[in-house]
Hints:
Blueprint: H1 10-14, E1 33-35, E2 45-49, H2 51-57, H3 61-64, H4 67-74, E3 85-87, E4 90-93, E5 96-100, E6 106-114, E7 117-124, H5 141-157, E8 163-176, E9 185-196, H6 202-210, H7 214-228, H8 237-261, E10 263-264, E11 286-287, H9 312-331, H10 334-360, H11 369-382, H12 387-393, H13 409-430, H14 435-445, H15 453-464, H16 469-477
Antiparallel strand pairs: 1-3, 2-8, 4-5, 6-7, 7-9, 8-9, 10-11
The protein binds adenosine monophosphate (AMP) and magnesium ion (MG).
The site of magnesium ion has 3 residues, from loops.
Amino acid sequence: MTAPLSFDNRLLRDLPGDPEPANRRRQVRGACWSRVAPTPVADPRLVAFSSEVATDLGLSEATLRSPQWLAALSGNGLVDGMDPWANCYGGHQFGNWAGQLGDGRAISLGEVDGPGGRAELQLKGAGPTPYSRSGDGRAVLRSSLREFLCSEAMFHLGVPTTRALSLVLTGDRVVRDMFYDGNAALEPGAIVCRVAPTFLRFGSFEIHASRRDQEALEALAEHTLSAWFPHLGAPSPDAYLAMLGEVAAATARTIVGWMRVGFVHGVMNTDNMSILGHTIDYGPYGWLDDYDPDWTPNTTDAGGRRYRYGNQPRIGLWNLSRLAEALFPLIGDEGRLKDALHSYSATLEAEQRAMYAAKLGLGAWTTGDEDLLTELLAILRATETDMSIFFRSLDVGTVDALQGAYYDPEDAAAVADRTRAWLGALATRTAHLDPGERRGAMHAANPKYVLRNYLAQLAIDAAEGGDFGPIHELHDVMRRPYDEQPGFEAYARKRPEWARNRPGCSTLSCSS
Length: 512
Ligand code: AMP
Ligand code: MG
């Protein structure tokens, strides 16, 4: 057994809490959090866990598997030092102010000082809280499995993200109407234990600003600054402006990471934007199979496609502007807030150039490369082309090597000449580079394995039938997304025809 984890729940110490102890749904004012106990479940079973996350926390596998920890990870008990709470936050949903949202089904257990740094442990699906509104506080297996696998896949892809420690089946059933069309059904309930330095969001600030609660806003800003941006010094308008600039730059880097690997978050509401710029809240997300900048997996967003792949960089700035507005009472100078947001566009542009330079194997980006990229993206849009396979095969430099990326051989023929001409231009542009080094750099930017929508769905189908083998195998493959992994090529295959229009593979809703 390892030594017990040392919990230090700094957020509870620093920030005003809800004085009302009752766990009933309501508006919570003047507070950043409410103490709330998880609601026990019938028959918990540990389905999967991340050994790397456990190690970061200082948790041995034996401890994780102990009855006490299984109880804690399923909401049936607490480990010494845990002091569970739900966070109060608001948010702009699909562009509109939605008022108080808060952790309606997430319950934080505590903050740990582990070998991997400070980390907050948070159960998702552990029962109702004062913020649950009309929801039941629970989560189903399919969405929990997607969050577990995707946050781990994202980490191994090198994109900043929350992590997942464990996936537990509760043994209870949960009613869900998957497409909000009157077809409610019972589904297996599950709980993921997510892990992040903090789960504070843009919406955590917005709620207090919207209520003109200067005291809570100041407490939250001071806490955030000293806990997560200590290098920026003591609280002051200058320090908060610098903090906003750093949040903006981190957000830009993460979104460019999504663009690089073909990830569509699906619900970039301001309550789903981490103050550390990490990917957070895996809901109706999806991965591009064919390269289509207008694609969104989220059926709730089908009309406006606000959160489509190609719009994510713009939404990042829109969301940061809402955060800047929320910080206005601490700074009182609109012009300086706008200036602080320039670091978003500056970082975004620089990171995007570096990202495409790496994907195309250009060495460093030069001015003329813009035309090369524009033509490539036009070619990709002209036909149904698998994004991951295309970029992974690009190092060879021939039209033949790209054949596997096309969904229809006739499409491939239609763009062959144009593609050949473009490959010629790329070859000329990169002729001075060492081929071996170039190939290595390209493979490090173009993953072979991503969590394709249909792969996650196959793991869900198996798990709902009681077979957890596919979850473990998929989890394992996603640990090394840039390696060839002989024998596992099936996980790099393009979307099969059956998955083209299947719910869960091409369309998802917020019901989870
Ligand atoms: P999301 O779209 O998942 O980011 O959730 C938006 C808001 O709805 C958050 O405040 C969630 O806590 C809340 N929510 C989502 N599902 C549930 C549920 N089943 N029970 C209670 N609250 C929920
Ligand atoms: Mg959310």
